[in-house]
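User: structure tokens for this one?
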Amino acid sequence: MGSKGGTRTLKRYASPYEWPVLRKRYKWVVKPSPGPHNLENSIPLLVALRDLMHLVQTSHEAKVVLSQEKIRVNGRVVRRVDLPVGVMDVISVEDTGAQFRMLPLNGALTAHLVADHEKDVRIMRIENKVITKNSTLQLNLTGGHNVCFKLGSPIEAKESPYFTLDSVVTDLKGRKISGHIRLKEGSYVLVVKGKNSGQHGLLAQTVPSFKRRRSLVHITTGNGGSIETVLDYVYAVGENKPIISLPEVV
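Assistant:
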């Protein structure tokens, strides 16, 4: 007997609690298709356009707008309502020229209006790096992107300035790296998971753990407070201050 794949439907009461959908008025909600983000860390493009950004009122309107190629995600024209969008993804509206960056706020994702000076800026985190044959350094970034560097020798590849969990500044399509942000004490970080999701501030201290991703970090917020989380839950978004605008935490 052949194996059975996953279901293609999703009931609203079973959707992640971060989704801004009414759970008792309607029964079904669109399920994100396999893509650059998993179910827990993303929302479908339809939910973002209808329930978060309020650009359309129904799924039919969303399908019409997408069929007219008026919506771009990270610089690419999209036509699928079930496309998963996650942290740092940029949604562009062709008619108005406005761009919205998906950022965490109060435990959920929000569509933050992108300023003019940062419309071509996208920050992605280095999830892993691999040295392939011919001394090529491959950086595996968030969102399913990979960037390769041709280096002179394996030793030079191992001594590269890029480290896991650092951030790189790229264009919207993630093809060209224009900057590198180290994740270290003193860097400006954004919390993207956990109960402190959406908080941001300076990384004050890191308490090492057996696994680096589970290391405890202390972050000093802008109002003088302090929060604790794990290293895997933070993104480096600047050296001393963020290079992109961030939503104000309520």
